[in-house]
Amino acid sequence: MKVILLEHTKLSNAIIGARTCYDSISKSDTNLSEPTDMLGEKDIGLLKKLVHRWKHESVIEHIVYVFKVEGISRACLQQLARHRISSFSVQSTRYCLKRILKNETDDVFVKTGNEFVDRRNFENIEELKEILKNNIENDKLKYAIPEAIKTELVWTINARSLRNFFKLRLGHGAMWEIIKLAKYIYEQLPDEHKNVLFEDFKQDIENIKLGGKENVKG
User: Fold this and answer.
1) CA angle, 65 as apex, 55 and 163 as ends, to 5°?
2) Complete domains list, the chain, with CATH
3) What's the whole-model pTM score?
4) Where in the sequence numbering do the catalytic residues fall?
């Protein structure tokens, strides 16, 4: 699994939004002449209060992140797609499946750490490669792929929705692979954003134990 932060908007967007609501732009101690993550102490305090104390999170919808996610399973993608206030551009199995299956079998699917499940997925992929010799079109072949097969996507989400994602996907009831994905996404965030918008998730992130198995959280 690999996550790359392709782009993000700046914290100053939220400050401009918040201070516009209260007609207090003149009280800002940040240079707002251009977008910036380097906020003054007053503005940092304001943003923290809005997010963590008052729960007025609408202003952080003006902060948006674009991630490239590689090597998650289609099963994990189904979980991620439930976060509907976000945008997805996902690798198409209709156009890419035959190209994907040309890779080494062990690199094509996500391993769970369970020998029975992983062996079955290995066998499924090998069988798919045999089926390919019959020149079946991808529209039909895709119905035979296991949920463990890897995919990649570009994912865009605003800061408010990302906080909701962390709340749901860092819990003990979350799927092990999406917990792992949440950790990688968090680690890609700029430090200024972690410290101001997501500081309440720091301990949850530190408690995660990574690994290709179900029990990834201690």
Assistant:
1) 30
2) 2-68+154-206 (3.30.1360.170)
3) 0.93
4) 169
